[in-house]
Amino acid sequence: MPHTLSAVPVTRLWECLSCLGISGLDDREARRIRLTNQGAALIVIFTIGFNVLYAIYDFRGLSPAIYFNTFAVAVYMVVLGLNHNRRHLLAKTLMMAMGIPQLLVLCWLFGYQCGLNMFYFVTTFYCVMIFSESEKIQLFGFPAMSIIFYLWTYFLFTNGPGVLNPAPSLLMIIHVSSFLGTFVIIGVFVWLFYNDVQRAEKLLKHEHERSESLLQNILPKAVIARLKGGETTIADRYTGVTVVFADIVDFTKLSTLLAPKDLVAKLNQIFSKFDKLIDIYGLEKIKTIGDAYMVACGLPEPRNDHVEVAAEFAMRMQDEVKSIENDEGGAFNVRIGIHTGPAVAGVIGTKKFAYDVWGDTVNTASRMESHGIPGEIQVSEDTYQLLKDKFTFVERGAVEIKGKGQMHTYLLKGMADKDAEHGVR
Fold it and tell me: Among residues 1, 126, 143, 306, which one has the fewest Cβ atoms lying within 10 Å of its Cβ?
């Protein structure tokens, strides 16, 4: 338990340092800045560790190295501060401008035998990870400088001890630490980079799933697949579809009485129930217009039972809306119209595009609703002829329909089998 408690603050501190200045950046640049912060923090840890080692061996004799390393630690802390203040390019440049000469100075102080020039492999590898393609001077300049400085330390400090002439045992410790540290740091950076990539991929996957979900709320799955397949114009003619229009009775009057937030919440409550029914029955929601709700069955994928399914769906809509109380304590009521016939459906628009349906079938279904009776489902003669053997109706007779003249209509009352439940066939 104590280990867990002590590890939590360290983990939080590391995550806090890693994320300095990355808010609002795109994933790739945020990954580079995170690695810059992590690199600066790791170098500070390693440098302080070496300082402690030098002080234990010979503080007075190795004081130049200790003071120089202390200055370097201060510079790396400035790097973290610059990233925090979103001076990212300056922070990355300062870090490499300090790190590469730092190794040269230490090799001069301790001699080539210390092995600190091994860290030039780290700086070369690290530059590629923190600089972007647009930062060409730094991306190519610092690795070239690392190689040049490595060769410089190799040829210049190969013979003879360093300026400080440290004890052979200390040189051995520094050499082994440098050798192991090089591989450890490279391994840590690869691991950190891998973790960041995994994190970015998970985020990308999450965003992709979210965008797919949003897209499926706008367009049918079959239409999305066709658009992804390269089709630019989606337009299809259907010989038989059933269109359902529903309108909440007296909702316009209610809108003058309720606060906007309450009005939207109530309408959302009703339409959310309708949306769930769509998933159950497999219909296609076309759109909402105010408090009107339009649904089609038999598209984009044709189905033989579109008329029956639409009728059952309409009856379930009545049941659902009656279960919701209006502002006066009573139940809501819905007026529904249904018509069956040919139609054209497709995707329109380039911004906020939508899947829509056109044709006389849509107009007639809308008229069935607008000229209907509150609490009833009015269907056209065409729809009645397709349903009369499976459902019960009450004949309403001839009704004057705007733009259509006299039309014979019927009121859908239920399924012909009295014991049948309202379910998907």
Answer: 1
Alpha-carbon distance of 209 to 215, in angstroms, equals: 10
Does residue 210 contact residue 202 with C-beta atoms inside 8 Å?
no
**Cβ proximity of 194 and 59 under 8 Å:** no
Q: Which of 359, 319, 327 shows the shortest CA–CA distance to 340?
A: 359
CB 220 within 8 A of CB 284: yes
CA–CA gap between residue 56 and residue 353 (Å, rounded): 72
With contact defined as beta carbons under 8 Å apart, do 240 and 342 qualify?
A: yes
Q: What is the pTM of this model?
A: 0.56
CA distance 363 to 307: 17
Local confidence pLDDT in tens for the 425 residues of the chain: 444 445 567 788 888 888 999 988 887 888 889 889 988 998 898 899 989 988 998 888 899 999 999 999 999 999 999 999 999 999 999 999 999 999 889 888 888 778 888 888 888 888 888 898 888 898 899 999 999 988 888 777 666 677 888 888 888 888 888 888 888 878 877 887 787 778 778 877 887 777 777 777 777 777 777 777 777 778 889 999 999 999 988 777 777 777 888 888 888 888 889 999 998 998 988 888 888 899 999 988 888 999 999 999 999 998 888 877 665 555 678 899 999 999 998 888 777 778 889 999 999 999 999 898 988 999 999 999 999 889 999 998 888 888 888 899 999 998 876 544 444 33
Give the β-pairing of 334-348 and 377-380.
Answer: parallel
Backbone angles phi, psi at 257, to 5 degrees: -100, -30
First to last CA, the chain: 59
- Cα 187 to chain center, whole Å? 30
Instruction: Answer left, alpha or beta for residue 115, where phi above 0 means left and psi between -120 and 50 means alpha.
Output: left
C-alpha neighbours within 13 Å on the C-beta side of residue 62: 21
Q: Of the candidates 321, 399, 415, 395, which has an alpha carbon nearest to the alpha carbon of residue 364?
A: 399
CA distance 366 to 360: 10
- At 162, the amino acid letter reads G
Residue closest to 336 by CA, chosen among 272, 239, 196, 242: 242
Cα–Cα dist 212/222, whole Å? 13
Helix, coil or strand: residue 221: helix
Q: How far is CA 282 from CA 84, 121, 197, in A?
A: 52, 61, 39
DSSP E strand boundaries for 172-251 = 235-248
Fill in the DSSP letter of residue 113: G
